[in-house]
Amino acid sequence: MAFREINSKMVEATVLPGQRLFSQRGAMLAYKGDVSFTPNLQGGQGGLMSMIGRRVTGEATPLMTVEGSGTVFFGHGGHHVHVINLTGDTLYVEADRLLAFEGTLRQGTMFMGSQGGVMGLVRGQVTGQGLFTTTLQGQGSVAVMAHGGVFEIPITPQRPVHVDPQAYVAHHGDVRNKLSAALGWREMVGRGSGEAFQLELSGNGTVFVQASEEKL
């Protein structure tokens, strides 16, 4: 595992010769050993076309490549951090949530409508997250950022999970997500619960939720 949580706001990464990591630019707090930090003009994995795709979809974020031999400590903006380990499946996460990830993972983007249909598109507009999201697939670990810490909720076919769209961080597994609306007469007259929109995730997997409704 490349990342280890030092405390709630800092992770430690082991960098080995011949391997590389990607992190948000400026997220290095300290390091030991012979380690280099290079701005990644392509914004991560996949080459030129992948870079163009991320920029077109609004999923591009300034990244740097971390290589060499040593130990690096990452943190950013005082945000809480959480390490997610992937064992061959795909993580769906907003680009601005990524603190760092292993170079063994394949990076891509996904059209929100492909998982949630029309309500997937509406979700992007309601949450301000846009119509696309970043995907990371393969074997490796990812460090994500959040407000107030992250907790994991299992998703099973018998028990879909409903999440406040503003508190959603990421999910992985064989999961469908859609935005459900609970608009009724109470909401129309201002007497509703204040939870008019909820993100429904169903299938098999895990959703990561932050303990806050504040965006990064």
From TrEMBL:
Signal peptide: none annotated. InterPro entries: AIM24, AIM24_sf, Trp_RNA-bd_attenuator-like_dom. Coiled coil: none annotated. It comes from the Bacteria. This is AIM24 family protein. It comes from Streptomyces fodineus. The lineage of its organism: Bacteria, Bacillati, Actinomycetota, Actinomycetes, Kitasatosporales.
